[in-house]
Amino acid sequence: PQKExxxxxxxxxxxxxxxxxxxxxxxxxxxxALLIAGTKEMPGAAxxxxxxxxxxxxxxxxxxxxxxxxxxxxxxxxxxxxxQNGMQxxxxxxxxxxxYRAAAIGPGTEPDRMTExxxxxxxxxxxxxxxxxxxxxxxxxxxxxxxxxLTPHPAEFSRITxxxxxxxxxxxxxxxxxxxxKLGVAIVLKGQNTVTAxxxxxxWINPTGNSSLAKGGTGDTLAGIMLGMLCCHNDWKHxxxxxxxxxxxxxxxxxxxxxxxxxxxxxxxxxxPEVWAAFE
Length: 280
Ligand code: B4P
Ligand code: MG
Prior knowledge:
binds magnesium ion; globular; 13% strand; ten-stranded mixed sheet
């Protein structure tokens, strides 16, 4: 049966829930985020997510990626540190995942055995975890203390659920809510008016964003912004909702003066400082 249309997560709610940066804070106050992303064929995804995270309130960022990807990212993001061949090292439990405030896995990675093994290791930890792109497989999630946040686009959501994209798109909020409860995770179903469904039944619609986001790399940027937001918010739900809202608001800032055909994903991270300030 068709349910009620969920409410929008508005600009006023973002303003009321964004954290202030404590004058006494130091980088440790905001924690270290772990980003597992990128392969030598898809290094850009790790860079885009890394830029999103470091622009979004994090204290420190560690990027676990392949050696070849590191060489490309370092010149454009010297602020991060790295675990070389980190996905493999985490999958084989050779690199610890204990010291992080939050993690994201999947941008620019293959949906293969190594990704699945690394995800299993992360799920054993007690930190909030964003699961995107290559890490979005058809699987179940054991109960854990900290949240798991899946960020599929409709094609990925179809892969997870086995439901056809056309059908999912007709009842986006209903399917997101159903699967959030079924899997015991939060589901951020991307696309025009992104739906965020929490496992307790709470569902929100995002009012920002536009067709300039329909371009490769913008999802990677969102995963990074969300990772950073998880580190600086007290309430993880607010971090997820504010990340989606702010990412769309950057695209709306772009189209104030520029064609939606022309946005590059890394430019979202360049717009974010001014867009964020407008909410403060
Ligand atoms: P992938 O190759 O997996 O795409 P990706 O690497 O995940 O791209 P990226 O991370 O940059 O973007 P994402 O979508 O995550 O794509 C595989 C296949 O899936 C492709 O063939 C593609 O056509 C298909 N697919 C993707 N979206 C689909 C859809 N809606 N319906 C049917 N097939 C689809 O993140 C994109 C970001 O931009 C999100 O934040 C999203 O909300 C936003 N966005 C995109 N279009 C928007 C719009 N029109 N309005 C507002 N926001 C929009
Ligand atoms: Mg994506």
